[in-house]
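Example record

Each entry pairs one chain with its bound ligand, zinc ion.
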Amino acid sequence: MARAVSDTRQLTALKEELIAGAAQVASIGLVPLTQGNLSLRDPQSGHVLITPHDYPYDELTTDDVVVLDLAGNVVDGFREPSHESPVHLAVYERRPEVVAIVHAEPIYTNVFGVLHKPIAPLHVNTLIDVGGAVPVMPFAPSGSRQFGYDMLEVMGDKRAVVWANHGMLAVGDSLSKAIHCTVMVEISAQLYHMALQHGQPHLIPDEFSDQLVG
Ligand SMILES: [Zn+2]
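Structure tokens for the complex follow.
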């Protein structure tokens, strides 16, 4: 009985963490209106907590968070899960170290997404957080587990990927790291875009970038 109570408390704490993370990315404009989605792995059960489909971030309560098993069955919650759930589940299935995922729609990142041009890691912090240039996945309709598998191939060992003509996805071993990575991708995209107006920006030299990526 004591175990069940602590499990419920743990799940509620994780739902609150997800809601706070969603509010944070919404507040800085990375998921306009109801776009994007966030998820978090429950380390105890292995289940995945995800934001509901097409639901305003500023109205989210713990009751609105949907909990899925890795097969995609709803184990808790009454809302429709994000339509990108199969993509998130593909990542959790194949990348055991991933604890959190953010799919966002930041405007400067989308500039490179429509150009199908990788985002150069111009800022030191982007290099550290993302692990190199942010690759662009060739266009394909999202929302399927196969899309997730194909995306992981393009991502390789990076912690973020741009979806052609459709936002980006970042992963982390915590929700705060996945959010941090999302923010740094957008900052780098903005920096890259602005620098390109004035000339060809200088990349961080290879010998230093290797050290920074570790
Ligand atoms: Zn989307």
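The beta strands are 37-41, 48-50, 66-68, 74-76, 100-104, 136-137, 160-163, 168-172.
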